[in-house]
Structures are given as C-alpha cells and as structure tokens.
Amino acid sequence: MLSELKLCFIPFALSRLLFFAVVVIVASNIKTELPARGGSIFHVEAGLKYEEVKSNITNILLQGDAAWYLEISKYSYPEINENNLNEKNTPKHWVFYPLFPIFVSILGLFLPSLISALIINSTLLLLSLVLLVKLGKLRNFDERKLKLTCYFLCFHPLSYFLSTPHSESVFLFLLTLTVYLIERLNKLHFISWALLLITRPSGILASPGLFIHYLLKKKDQKISILGFSMLLIPLSLFYYFLYTITGDPLISFTNQKFWGRETLNLSNFNFNNISLFKPWSSNLVHAILITLSVLSATLLTKKKDWGLVLIILLPLVVPSMGGSLLSIGRYSLALFPIYLGLVSIKDKNLNNFGYTYLAISSFIYGTMCLCYALGVSFALT
Question: Which helix (H) or strand (E) holds 14?
C-alpha cells in the first residue's frame, strides 16, 4: 500500500490544497454593506477574523446538496402524515440515499457533522486513489500511466465535490473497491456492492456493468446465488423504511420530478449559450466531460473490457434521459473507469494528450473551485 500512496499522494494533496486554499481566501474577505447615496455599497475587507471566517467557510461548504445530507445525518428523513401530505409535492430529502449520512452520523458522535463529512470524504478519496493505482498495476500500467490516472481524477473539473459534504467520495470508493475485489476474486465484493446500492442511485445503474465484469473475471468459479441474493438487502431495507415514513417505497424516485429532473429537456443544453464558469451547469464543461467519457468507453471497448464500458455509459445515459443532463459532470466524476480508459490511449500519443488535457482540466478545476467558493450562478440541478 505504501508504494501506491507514494504515487497518488502528491496529486491528492495538491488538488485538495488548491480547493481549501481558495475556500479560505474567499471566506477571509469580509463584506460589509454601507449606506450610500441612492442605495448602498459593499466594503470588502480581507482579514482573519476567526468567527466571521469560520462562518463564511461553513456557508461555502454547505452549499447545494451538502446541507440536505447533513440534515439527514442529524434528523433522519422527514415523515409524511395527514397534516403534511402536500410535502410530497416539494423537493425533499428522500432523493438522497442513506449511506453517506449514516457514516457522518456515526463519526458525528465524536466530531461536528461538517468536520466529520470532510474527514470521511478526504480519507475515502485517498483510499480510492490507492485502489485505482492497484487496478492500474493489474493492467500492467507503467508509472507514468499510474500517475496520470491519479491526476485525471484529482483534477477533474468538479472534483471539489470529493471533499465537500456530498456522497461522491463514498460512491467512488465503493465502486473502485467492488471492481478491485471482483478482479481479485474476493467474495467480499458482494458487501461493498450492496453498500454501493444505498450510496447513490448511480449504484443501481452501475450494477449491470459490475455483473458483466463479474462474469468475465470469475473464470471457472460458480456464480454465488447467496451473494447475489444478499445484494438487495440494504436497498430493500431503505425502500421499506421510506414506505414506513411516507407510504411510498419509491418516493426517492417519484420526488425527483419536484427537483426539475422528471423528463429530458435538451433545451437546457444550449451550445448557443455556453457558460464556462457555473459550478454545476456549465455547458462547455459538460460537453468536454461527455466527450472524454465516450472516448474512454471507446478505448475500453477496444480492450474488450465490457463491464467497465457499461459502468461508464449507463450511469451517464440513463440520468440524462431523466432530465439530469446538467448534472452529467458529477455523475462522471465518480466513474473511475473513465480515468483507466483515458490512459489506455496509444503510448506515442499519451504524453501529448495526457498533459494537454491535464493542463486544461486543472485550469477549469481551479476556476470551478473559485466559482464554488463565490457561489457564482449556483444552479441546483
């Protein structure tokens, strides 16, 4: 494990340092509203006033879905009764799967919830990188390819979500762990796979690819009927729990339409109105990530790695058809086979492609970190 850590720690440290440095710098700018003729002006003061900076950092990190996850970790999911039936028709916590909030609530017994979430996600990101290097070694990648794989993940344009209180790091870790255990013919993959299903809905969409990968790697071993029967237990328990508190076991899906994600709306993806600097709804960034995902899947197809191809494509295509096209970047972030595929390009082209893409991706990542910290055009999609 030490050799893998040596390869992945620098990209991990550099990318996290960049994000948190941007957050602290932005949070250190204290804005005060002052009266002026015809209205008001804002006086901006850069400093280190601990309480105000701490409050600003907290507000930055709790943007978007983060606040929903931490509320679940503290108060669980809201119940529906005869007095609040209309709440079913509003965006609610039920669309978020429970594993990440469970982890936060456990560590939250000893630490504040926000700190717990940051520790969990940073730790799991580092462990994911270690597993990614191990998977690269199983494919006989040289050191250059192993390092590029780690840099591609750490400097993904939206990889700040791997450090903020969101479920991407947990999903990334469990998906990487499941594939690694499958390739090592370790039956513990059924446990990580079962947990993956209660992390994000993408876990369900990744399962066909995981099953194909399992069939291709198991060789002469018999299919474990018991293992596959256990897969759905945690997910079934989650749906049953939702049924007991809302009367609808599938409310995590039916509530999606109140988040604006019910149907495909291609007008949201308008190349005549390209915006590079919106944290979640950047048309240009998503166009780049879709192109790279397709390229990676194509390269893996040439290697007949069908399971990993499906793991890339299904979680991207199906949500897009459900109206979540503007969230495509976040879906791609945690699909680690993309990074394995991108370094599978011909060796003679790898340097030019790899380092050019890394430079572009790093620039966009830094810009998106700044946008996230500033809350610029923060589109909740």
Answer: helix 2-27
One-letter identity of residue 117: A
Residue 380 lies in a domain: no
Dist. CA 198–CA 167, nearest whole Å: 11
CA 352-134-120 angle, to 5 degrees, is 100
Q: What domain range includes position 98?
A: 2-374
Task: Tell me the CB-side half-sphere exposure of residue 106, using CA atoms within 13 A.
Answer: 7
Taking alpha carbons only, the member of 222, 132, 139, 138 closest to residue 169 is 132
User: φ, ψ for residue 207 (rounded to 5)?
Assistant: -65, -40
DSSP, collapsed to helix, strand or coil, labels residue 80 as coil
Count the helices and strands in the chain (H runs, E runs). Answer: 17, 2
User: Is position 328 within any domain?
Assistant: yes
Q: What is the pLDDT of residues 324-363, one digit of tens each?
A: 666 778 888 999 999 999 998 887 888 888 899 999 999 9
Q: H or E stretch including 35?
A: strand 29-36
| Token pair listed for 32 | 């005060």
| Angstrom distance (rounded) from CA 175 to CA 177 | 5
Domain count, the chain: 1
Q: Tell the residue number behind the tokens 């790697």, with chain if given.
A: 217
